[in-house]
Amino acid sequence: MAVLVIGATGFIGPRLIKRLIDRGESVVGMDLNPGAASFSGVPIGAPVVRGDVTQFEDVMRVVLDVKPERLINLAYGLGAGEGNPHQVMRLDILGMDNCFEAARLAGVKRVVYASSIAVSGQQSHFGDRLVNEDDPVHGTSQYAMHKIFNEFQARKYIKNYGMSIIGVRPANVTGPDKVRGSVDHVQIMTDAARGKPVHLPNKGMMRLLVHVDDMAEIFTRILLAEAPRHHLYNSGGLPVSLGELADAVRGFLPDAQITFANEGGREESGNYLVDWSRLAKEFGVEYPGLHTWVLQIINEVRRQEGLAPV
Ligand SMILES: NC(=O)c1ccc[n+]([C@@H]2O[C@H](COP(=O)([O-])OP(=O)(O)OC[C@H]3O[C@@H](n4cnc5c(N)ncnc54)[C@H](O)[C@@H]3O)[C@@H](O)[C@H]2O)c1
Q1: What is each CA distance from 86 to 45, 57, 140, 169, 174, in whole angstroms?
Q2: Is residue 218 within 6 Å of ligand 1 at its C-beta?
Q3: Domain that holds residue 187
């Protein structure tokens, strides 16, 4: 079937496109920056047209050209917003509205969009318990507020027009080439893989990690599913402190120079205890384990750098 991926050349988009193509789907990407190089240097494998998601005419034109059965919007101001509220509001809020409205007018059968674990805010709001998709949201950053509003926009379009719109709340997505959003966990693995020292503020800071390949697989399954049972899914992931992650890295690279300024950080951590049983049960998602991801990322970076794998 025809699938349109908006925000196609960032961190998650190219991996999603490769998976869709492997399953035999006919994929077209749209991005403001269609020529971005992928980490591994492997071509994306689908045409990517230039288009600005904040311009309704661009989105509508591409939707009418591609006639997708499925559309996913990944275009976003990731890790942005606090310094340039106007520009990011247009991208995150207006961009999402443009996707929903174009999909409505063209009769697209399924729209998927990325929300975020950021909607939940700090773990301390919930105490020491798992947070599910029905819990109240406590995010306060502009990024979190935009994601909360995106979920509202989706509910509105679902209610008013009966559309199939599914949101996914990714946790802290990790991988060798991540440069936007949370990157402390990435640095611990990639700098160590390159033999570079890494120094971070808080050893106890918690992250909920999910590998970018697994994230791409989740989006693939939800996009292609016949009839998802819910409108919102937590990706969940593996909760780990940065100190524990550093220990996992040292298991493969005993000489890694990873240091922290403080022992603490756990109390200030964002939501890291997440109930993702919805996704696990309905889509059969399982994560392989932290050490598998860490080794994979270290060796991907070392391959890129021309270093021997560990
Ligand atoms: N990566 C994570 O850790 C993470 C975690 C939670 C949620 N998410 C969400 O998942 C989605 C994808 O994340 P990602 O890591 O691939 O992001 P990314 O920033 O790597 O990719 C976003 C893509 O959107 C494109 N884009 C930006 N402005 C555009 C515009 N005006 N028109 C068209 N395209 C535009 C960019 O060129 C880029 O290719 C985002 O909504 C993000 O908020 C990501």
Answers
A1: 34, 20, 17, 24, 28
A2: no
A3: 175-208+238-269+288-304
